[in-house]
Amino acid sequence: MNLLLHQILAGLATGGIYASVALALVMIYQATHLVNFAQGELAMFSTYIAWALIQAGVPYWGAFALTVVFAFVLGVVIERVIIRPVEDAPILAIVIVFIALLVIFNSLAGWIFSYTIKPFPSPFPEQPLFGNSYVSSHELGSTAITLIVLFLLFGFFRFTPLGLAMRAAAQNPVSSRLVGIRVGWMLALGWGLASAIGAIAGMMVAPTVFLEPNMMGGILLYAFAGALLGGIDSPGGAVVGGFVVGVLENVVGAYVGTELKLTVALVVIIGVLVVRPAGMFGQVHVSRV
Amino acid sequence: MTTPLLDVRGLSAQYGPTQVLHGIDFGIAAGGITTILGANGAGKTTLLRAVCKMIRSAGEVRLEGQRIDGCTTEAIVRQGVAHVPDGRGTFMNLSVEENLRLGAHTRRDRAEVAGDFERMYAHFPRLKERRRQQAGTLSGGEQQMLAVSRALMLRPRLLLLDEPSFGLAPRIVQHLFEILREIHVRERIGMLLVEQNASLALQLADHAYLLETGRVVMSGPAETIRSDEKVRRSYLGY
Fold first, then answer.
1. What superfamily does domain B1-80+157-165+190-238 belong to in CATH?
2. Given CB atoms, is A250 within the 8 Å cutoff of chain B?
3. Mean pLDDT of chain B
4. Which ipTM score applies to this complex?
5. In angstroms, rounded to a whole number, what is the distance separating the alpha carbons of residues A163 and B66?
6. Per-residue confidence at A152, pLDDT binned at 50, 70, 90?
């Protein structure tokens, strides 16, 4: 029983990471109807920036904040410079651009920072908090950070005029222009936010998986599974899906075998696509013919 | 002579190789209502889209003397041109209230905006009843009311209306046109009205243009057009 509880709590911690990346995927998906395969590599690259800043003597939270800003700007620039010109290109062309970005950032990180695995510091103490033996304080802390980020984002999209304009621009660009929304900038802002969320997820997961250019590969797959499970067009669903996949992965890893951990993600992806393609909270799209 | 609200010269537009508008001239007097009449495929919707640069177009467009044909759609909207588009342009997944809030997106006068919400709800009580509902669940008629209200939330100088009567029950059409007239009289908002329902449009408008395959074939005061033998037979049906 204790083992199960422990696995569930640990699963929630990694699930939070998946939920964040899943949310970033959904944000880009809503605007472009494509999955940004480079999302994980952007997060990984940003985490390297945080590592470099910390190495240069910047205190952890300072490096954290600077990295979030860096990731945001990086996302905006990528949208403006690389994605915008291919906006109206055939889907396959855009997918190739995403894959190219993935490869470019992966090799760039390897070239600049080398492929050797690096430890990444956790901002949380080594001793478990509140004297509990179930979760490490890093797991607890990173879950808390994830939840704070998710709540802030929810508030931003739900209650601010800018958040509303961004949702509108993603859903209906034509009508958005007709009420004076600068749709191009809203999409760039969406990329910036998605990239910033990814960076936070990267910094939270790096202490556990260690920093290396391929660290986000598996995570992107789990996040994708989470996003699909919740519904690729539902931000709330993606978050729930991310947490579910995290718990599932941990429980299966503990009771069935670690070898099957990644298989869980693939089973979820295929299962959802076969049984309910719209996901748990996604909308079923019906078109009249 | 006062500057016309809208002055359009040589407006042309094409979809791919097909030219849809062939150098059209038209205008709206200050505080006036102009209607564009024509059959399906005459280029009415294209004309509205060309005016606010939703499509590429050539020709001069002046809003109160200022050239706007080099602006983006967003910039034209920010100068006070609201558009009730073909197909209503509802933000389906947002609530009715959020749709209206988006209409006032470019405005910064919060207190006034709050007042305008109440005015729209007074014009269309249905929208108030359903303000928390997803706009996609509204009936066609309700969505048309929402589209008009959303455009009015901008407090426009010029309102472009693309077949506001489309899909509405006759009684609701009457109500909608009464409200448009009332708003026009009270706030002197100029309107460019594209309609299939010619008799209705000619009652509201002061000026009319008749469009056939992308060319203006007749124009004049609404009174004159209404009494024209040919128009009466082809468009008014008596």
1. P-loop containing nucleotide triphosphate hydrolases (3.40.50.300)
2. no
3. 90
4. 0.90
5. 32
6. very high
In Å, how far from its chain's centre is CA B226? Answer: 20
B101: its two tokens: 């809030």
Q: How many CB atoms lie within 10 A of CB A67?
A: 25
Which pair of structure tokens corresponds to residue B51? 């005016």
Which among A171, A169, A194 has a CA at the least distance from the CA of A183? A169
Beta bridge partners of B191: B33, B159
Q: How many CB pairs under 8 A join A and B?
A: 61
pTM: 0.86
What is the percentage of chain A residues whose pLDDT exceeds 70?
A: 95
| 3-state DSSP assignment of residue B31 | coil
Tell me the domain boundaries of chain A.
20-215
Task: Please give the radius of gyration of chain B, using alpha carbons only, rounded to the nearest integer.
Answer: 17
CB contact under 8 A, B102 and A178: no
| Position A43 pLDDT exceeds 70 | yes
Look at residue A285 in the predicted model and tell me its pLDDT: 57
Residues B14-64 have pLDDT tens digits of 888 888 999 999 999 998 999 999 888 888 899 999 999 999 999 999 999
Using an 8 Å Cβ cutoff, are A211 and A3 in contact? no
List the domain boundaries for chain B.
1-80+157-165+190-238
Q: What H or E segment, with its residue span, contains residue B82?
A: strand B81-84
List CB contacts of A19: < 8 A, sequence separation 6 or more.
Answer: A146, A150, A223, A226, A238, A239, A240, A241, A242, A243, A246
Q: Are strands B33-37 and B190-195 parallel, antiparallel or unpaired?
A: parallel
Q: Are B86 and B162 in contact (CB under 8 A)?
A: yes
Chain A touched by B83 (CB under 8 Å): yes
Q: Is residue B103 less than 8 Å (CB to CB) from chain A?
A: yes
Instruction: Tell whether A175 is within 8 A of chain B (Cβ).
Output: yes
10 Å CB burial of residue B218 (0-12, 13-18, 19+) is middle
A165 vs B contacts (CB less than 8 Å): 102, 105
| Segment B160-202, tens digit of pLDDT | 999 988 878 888 888 889 999 998 998 889 999 998 888 889 9
